[in-house]
Amino acid sequence: MKFERLIKKYSKKYTIKHKTEGHWDGPNWIEGSEVNYQIEAAIFPISAEQVQRYEGLGYTTQDIKVFITVPIEALNLDTEEIETIELKKDDEISYLDNKYVFDTVNDRTTHADFVKWIAVRKQDDSS
Question: N or C, which end of the chain has less CB nearby within 10 Å?
Fold first, then answer.
C-alpha cells in the first residue's frame, strides 16, 4: 500500500543528527561522524491510550511517533546534497524546540512505503 501522499500531507521539514558507521582503516578503528540532515516526516504525539499499549517499553505522552516514507531522501546540511540514508536507533530529531532520540522502528516496507519510529524525548544535560 502506498501512504506517501498521506504522509506528505502531514509532513514538515525536520533536522536530524545521524551518526555514520565507523570503519577499520588497517589496524585502526575510525569512529563514525555526526552529520546533520533535513528530512520530511509526519510527527504525532503518543496518546495516553498508546502509552498503555506500549506498556513496559517506558514511553510517555512526551514521546512522539515519526512516520517517514522510504527510501529516505535527506538533505545533507553540510554539503547541501540530497542523499539516501537509513535512520538508526539513537539518531536524533529536533521537534518543537526539543530533541528526541529514535528508539524503536516498526518497518512497514513489506506491505507499504513507510516506516514508523518511536522517538523518546531527550532529557536536558545539565553538565
Answer: C
Q: What is the dihedral of CA 31, 33, 39, 45, to 10 degrees?
A: 60
The pLDDT value recorded for residue 84 is 95
Rounded Cα distance, 94 and 85, in Å: 17
The answer to whether residue 126 sits within a structural domain is: no
Find the domain containing 64 and state its range: 2-22+29-121
CATH number at residue 18: 2.40.10
Give the Cα separation of 68 and 116 in Å (integer): 7
AA identity, residue 53: R
Is the distance from CB of 40 to CB of 15 less than 8 angstroms?
A: no
pTM: 0.85
